[in-house]
Design a protein that fits this description.
The complex is a heterodimer of chains A (370) and B (377). By secondary structure, chain A is an alpha/beta fold. Chain A has helices spanning 19-22, 37-46, 60-67, 99-105, 107-112, 131-141, 197-210, 216-222, 244-253, 257-260, and strands at residues 3-8, 29-30, 34-35, 51-56, 81-86, 117-122, 125-127, 145-152, 163-167, 173-178, 186-196, 229-233, 238-240, 280-282, 287-289, 291-293, 298-299, 302-304, 307-308, 313-314, 319-321, 324-325, 330-331, 336-338, 340-342, 347-348, 353-355, 362-364. In chain B, the strands form seven sheets. In chain B, strands 17, 19, 21, 22, 24, 25, 27 and 28 form an eight-stranded parallel sheet that branches. In chain B, strand 11 and strand 12 (176-181) form a beta hairpin. The longest helix of chain B is centred in the middle third of the chain and has 13 residues, at 200-212. Chain B contains eight helices and 29 strands. Classes of the chains: A alpha/beta (370), B alpha/beta (377). The interface between A and B is medium-sized, with 35 and 33 residues.
């Protein structure tokens, strides 16, 4: 495929309460064995994109470890390349650390790439999409930019704070807005674009000249009249992990195999870094229902309607209900959790009960001992 | 990491005919174990964890799947610059035509050119059909300490079972003076595990001589070890402690799987200091349904459990339908147990579909039933 794949980083609208204190959003654990970035990166490689640049806002260690050379995402080790790029310059303030600044700093690597097109998408939109079809449509439409969108009837709950697209009947984008949750139906921009590399470089440079606080999407909004921007509707499952409550809701809804079928499609594997964990042990006396469980766990207690990541221990008498337990966490004897997100390697032992809600799940910090 | 100077040769050519239909299309080393592993993952992971970088795998019977599998040396981290996993099948040769491996020793003899190319100081001979974890580097240190020409790993077995094994009779320093294959009156309970370390230069001489001997079976146990003993070579016995199982029959394969269900079991596949590696599978995590009952079970990725699972091992991507019962059984990867079906004391082979409502096995059966028909009604 003749496109460079860029994975853009999250803007300040993305705030996954606590989880993103320790790692950038793309590296957050998801549905037991994945990380958020696995979905867009697998989309890229499954679509035949072999050159990928991942931009990282901060704390790159986690992401570098997870992505490695990219070989486990099926990036060809000779013909392809996965680059993890981040601002090597120290930014005087976080507001200056935006995508355009990082593209400018790494412009050499964008210009060097020989692909005539670029596809830009962030990691926190989760969907399954063949980008080779999108590129084909883009080329045939002669549009300057193809912008992906999804139509939702649940905009009061989902995609809050996301950009919206206004389009005419030919799907030409006429304006952008913001989903403030006022109405149910809306067309949500997935912040993913296809354009020629030349236009992309021009826009980045123009954004940098216009304002040192401009993001790529700001200059696209400014250009809505001069450029032919066309909407491309993504059908099927689309979710946006931009808040703790959405993180919680999306993990929970994907437990349902019928919902999961919209995201995990035959012939379209979702790759991730694996850990060679042994299968999970369910002890005599354990009781597990309605839950997704990764490998390497030891379950002695009760687990209901939850997501249990790899190498988690749930001891005797513990009750885990409507909760998300991240890798390596330890839930001690007789501990009761209801609507709780337990971050990696946390040990819950002394506190015997924690209760949150759908909107505000309780968050237990990484490596915390309570 | 730079590796030690020992090459491993894994004998993986056998069918394992007592596994019946489980080895109809694959060799025994490729048979699945513990839900997600294949038997050969054990010696391969042991090699990787023991700092061995050159591993030859000698295949013969139904080798297509096995050859393709072991060639992916990255599964076990054996894709290093100075090594790899090499598939060694019988080949057609100048003047000799196409020959099969006539015995365990012959399989090595036919690949002397391969070993000469690596030129290792030591050769480790392994079998591809045993379930165990072992640090071969420690065994090598023992071999060096004993200044032996060959070292054979031995397992202490109950004396009344010793007549089923190749028995090593040793002096007080664990030096072997006699080898007896399946003796009626065993003098010792040290059974050979089929794991040998040889100093390569000496072994090479014996292999060349054995190749020319028309009366030889070309077998390590029957020919090479006795020849070493006859010549007064030093042979050390290396005592192994820990879990070891030859999963050669349907019953023993089932038993070994059931051992995984025992709390604190000796094999301890969850031990992160000695992981057993296998193929990466792109499957969702396992899902346990709203109405499922799961107790005392060992379940792996991709499995979907809607029914009841007790005292069982469930493999990659298996499905247990609503109302189905899986009791005291091993479900091999990809198998599906239809709604309301009941499977008791069975091994359900890979990708088999058990029809809804079908009943297989019973709680009081003497031996384990193997369900291997593609669609089992």
């Amino acid at each position: 495929m003749r496109a460079l794949g860029i994975i853009n980083f999250e803007n300040s609208n993305v705030n996954i309460g606590g989880l993103d204190d320790y790692r950038p959003a793309p590296a957050i654990a998801f549905l037991g064995r994945y990380r958020i970035i696995d979905f867009i990166l697998s989309n890229y490689t499954n679509s035949g994109i072999d050159n990928v640049q991942v931009y990282c806002k901060e704390k790159p260690r986690n992401l570098i470890e997870h992505l490695g050379s990219g070989s486990h995402y099926n990036i060809n080790s000779k013909r392809g390349k996965l680059r993890i790029l981040y601002g090597e310059k120290s930014f005087s303030s976080p507001v200056y650390n935006h995508d355009v600044a990082n593209y400018m700093l790494n412009m050499q690597y964008i210009e060097e790439d020989t692909n005539p097109y670029v596809i830009i998408a962030p990691s926190y939109f989760i969907y399954s999409l063949d980008f080779s079809t999108v590129l084909q449509t883009h080329i045939e439409s002669h549009a300057d930019i193809t912008a992906l969108y999804t139509s939702t009837n649940d905009a009061k709950v989902q995609f809050l704070g996301c950009d919206t697209l206004e389009m005419d009947k030919d799907k030409k984008v006429t304006g952008f807005g913001t989903n403030r949750g006022k109405k149910k139906a809306n067309t949500i921009s997935m912040e993913a674009y296809v354009m020629t590399k030349k236009l992309f470089i021009d826009l980045v440079k123009k954004a940098a000249e216009t304002s040192s606080l401009y993001w790529l999407k700001d200059i696209i909004v400014d250009s809505v009249e001069e450029l032919d921007i066309r909407g491309y509707q993504v059908r099927g499952y689309v979710a946006c992990v931009n808040s703790a409550s959405e993180y919680f809701r999306i993990n929970m809804e994907l437990r349902d195999r019928n919902v999961a079928k919209g995201l995990f499609k035959p012939g379209w594997p979702v790759y991730t870094q694996t850990n060679d964990s042994a299968p999970t042990t369910y002890a005599t006396g354990s009781c597990v229902k309605g839950s997704v469980v990764a490998n390497g766990c030891s379950i002695e207690g009760e687990v209901t309607d939850s997501v249990i990541s790899r190498n988690v221990t749930v001891r005797k008498g513990a009750i885990v209900k409507d909760s998300i337990i991240l890798p390596g966490a330890y839930i001690g004897e007789n501990v009761k959790l209801d609507h709780v997100i337990v971050d990696k390697y946390a040990i819950i032992h002394h506190v015997k009960a924690l209760t949150g809600t759908d909107e505000e799940p309780v968050y237990v910090k990484r490596r915390d001992r309570i | 990491m730079r590796a030690n100077n020992m090459a491993a040769m894994i004998l993986a050519g056998g069918r394992g005919s007592r596994l019946h239909d489980l080895t109809k299309k694959v060799a025994k080393p490729a048979v699945h174990f513990g839900g997600k592993y294949r038997i050969i993952d054990f010696p391969l992971s042991n090699c990787a964890n023991s700092g061995i970088s050159n591993v030859g795998v000698l295949t013969q019977y139904e080798s297509v799947l096995l050859n393709a599998y072991v060639a992916k040396d990255q599964f076990w981290g054996l894709d290093t610059n100075d090594g790899g996993v090499y598939v060694l099948t019988p080949r057609e040769r100048d003047q000799k035509g196409l020959d099969v491996y006539r015995g365990t020793a012959d399989a090595i003899t036919q690949n002397i050119d391969f070993l000469d190319e690596i030129n290792p100081e030591y050769v480790l001979i392994l079998s591809g059909d045993h379930i165990y974890k072992m640090n071969y580097e420690k065994m090598l240190a023992y071999h060096q300490m004993k200044n032996a020409d060959a070292t054979i790993a031995v397992l202490q077995v109950p004396l009344k079972e010793a007549s089923r094994f190749g028995i090593m009779n040793c002096d007080e320093n664990d030096m072997i003076y006699e080898f007896e294959e399946k003796p009626a009156q065993p003098k010792s309970n040290l059974a050979s595990m089929g794991i040998y370390i040889f100093s390569y230069k000496t072994l090479r001489k014996y292999l060349v001589a054995d190749d020319k001997n028309p009366n030889s079976n070309h077998d390590f146990g029957k020919d090479i070890i006795p020849a070493y003993l006859n010549d007064g070579r030093t042979l050390a016995a290396y005592r192994f402690k820990g879990y070891w199982k030859d999963v050669g029959t349907v019953d023993s394969l089932w038993e070994s799987n059931m051992d995984l269900l025992k709390p604190g079991n000796e094999l301890d596949l969850g031990d992160t200091s000695w992981k057993i590696y296998t193929e990466d599978v792109n499957a969702l995590p396992q899902y346990i349904g709203e109405e499922a009952v799961v107790e005392n079970a060992y379940i792996t990725q991709g499995a979907v459990i809607m029914g009841e699972v007790r005292n069982s091992v469930i493999g990659t991507g298996c499905e247990v339908g609503r109302g189905a019962k899986v009791i005291d059984s091993v479900i091999q990867p990809g198998a599906k147990i239809g709604e309301g079906a009941k499977v008791t004391r069975c091994i359900v082979a890979d990708n088999v579909e058990v029809a809804p409502g079908a009943v297989y096995g019973s709680a009081d059966s003497e031996s384990i039933e193997l369900v291997a028909k593609k669609y089992a009604e």
